[in-house]
Amino acid sequence: MLNIIWVIMIFTGIASGLLMGRTKEVSDAFLESCVNAVELSITMLGAMCLWSGMMKVAQKAGLVDGLAKLLRGVFKFLFPGIPKGHAANGAIAMSISADLMGLGNAATPLGIIAMKELSKINGNSPTASNAMVMFAVVNAACIQLIPATVLIIRQQAGSASPTSIIPTVWIASLASLISGIAAAKLLEKRYRDPAYGLKRTASIW
Fold first, then answer.
1. Could you give the CA distance from residue 28 to residue 31 in angstroms, rounded to a whole number?
2. Do 148 and 105 contact (CB within 8 A), yes or no?
3. What is the arithmetic mean of pLDDT over 139-153?
4. Is the Cβ–Cβ distance between 90 and 59 less than 8 Å?
5. Residue 201 above 50 pLDDT?
6. Alpha carbon of 146 to those of 63, 66, 155, 165, 174: distances in Å?
7. How many Å apart are CA 129 and CA 127, to the nearest integer?
8. DSSP for 108-143, written as a single string
């Protein structure tokens, strides 16, 4: 469905530009988008290589397992279907840690790695499991202790106090995180997890 929406938006934009006689702008936008796409791909490739390597180093050093153990209680509630000691636990822990520190460039590739591990548990099914949905919710609404990107933008924009928004960011992200987790837990009761063939019965509390 999302692909259809994107196609409609793209062709509507192109048709509107051509009908309004803005062929040059449409052509320039095509070329600029191609350049941006290549730059983004190269940037993401570098980030993926870097943080995938860091993930392997952390695994060998035992840091990933240690972090996963610290968060075991939280993971048991949020992701009850993940087997104990599975690589997904460490990948999720690393991704959430990167989010907490506001390291967006690190969180994205680590999140992809975590989702791949969850997909393996799900048998690479085209239908997302409860754990995959929950991870998407937590990853999207994760609390950032240091919202580095926003602080940099505010500083560049000439803000007198770039860090003044931090408490507001904490409150807003905490509210969205709690709401997302509650909604996911409520809805997963009606959803049969393809990875296990069982209905979740865990309470949201």
1. 5
2. no
3. 73
4. yes
5. no
6. 22, 23, 14, 11, 14
7. 6
8. HHHHHHHHHHHHHHTTT-SSPPHHHHHHHHHHHS--
Does residue 113 surpass a pLDDT of 80?
A: yes
Token pair of 46, please?
A: 């570098």
In the chain, the amino acid numbered 184 is: A
Is the confidence at residue 202, as pLDDT, over 70? no
At residue 28, the 3 state secondary structure works out as helix
Measured distance CA(155)–CA(80) in Å, rounded = 42
Measured over the CA atoms of residue 186, residue 190, residue 195 and residue 197, the dihedral's sign is positive
Size (the chain), residues:
205
Asked if 83 contacts 122 with a C-beta cutoff of 8 angstroms, the reply is: no
pLDDT tens digits along 58-111? 767 777 667 667 777 787 888 887 877 788 887 888 788 777 766 666 677 778
The three-state secondary structure class of 157 is coil
Asked whether 81 and 102 are in contact (CB, 8 A), the reply is no
